[in-house]
Amino acid sequence: MKCTHVRLMVDDFNTCFRFYLEKVGLATTYPADASGPYAEFALGADTYLGLFDRSLMQEALDAPAARALGPSDDRVALCFEVADVDVEAARLAAAGVAIVIPPRDHEPWGMRTTYVRDPAGNLIELYSGLKG
């Protein structure tokens, strides 16, 4: 398991994008005129700060299990790349970790994800590329 991203879910993508690009001075892996809904800034050593439109992240979490918990007020997620999302979800469930969103494909993103929360309620995304 490798932490690759800290993702911020933001309400005003363009303002936040410009802030990290122009004020903080982070190098982006996206065009400087990116308008969202997602972008990344290189933090070094294959680690990124991701910005994602908060309402679209909510859509990604919009599954029956998530709806039962009510609207999310998540502002940050830790993103871990794993070899196999299904294996990792099964391992975590066996260890007593509640799976918030079971493994599922996100075709537009080219990845398979599952979501859990740490004991403090922070969102954790486990992902791997879609299998061909």
Question: What is the strand and helix layout of this fold?
Answer:
Layout: E1 2-10, H1 13-23, E2 38-44, E3 47-53, H2 54-60, H3 64-69, E4 76-81, H4 85-94, E5 99-106, E6 111-117, E7 123-129
Parallel strand pairs: 1-3, 4-7
Antiparallel strand pairs: 1-4, 2-3, 5-6, 6-7
List keywords for this structure.
alpha/beta, 4 helices, 132 residues
Q: Could you write a compact summary of the structure shown?
A:
With 132 residues, this protein is an alpha/beta fold. Helices cover 26% and strands 39% of the residues.
Q: Strand sequence of the main sheet, in spatial order?
A: 2-3-1-4-7-6-5
Share of residues in helices: 25-40%
Number of strands: 7
What amount of the residues lies in strands? 35-45%
What are the segments in which pLDDT stays under 50 over at least 5 consecutive residues?
Answer: none
Instruction: Compute the CA-based radius of gyration.
Output: 15 Å
Count, helices: 4
Describe the overall structure.
The model has no long low-confidence stretch (mean pLDDT 85). This protein is α/β, with parallel strands linked by helices. A seven-stranded mixed β-sheet has the order 2-3-1-4-7-6-5. Helix content is 26%, strand content 39%. It is built from four helices and seven strands, in the order βαββααβαβββ. A hairpin with a 5-residue loop joins strand 6 and strand 7 (123-129). The longest helix has 11 residues, at 13-23. The radius of gyration is 15 Å and the shape is globular. The protein starts with a strand and ends with a strand.
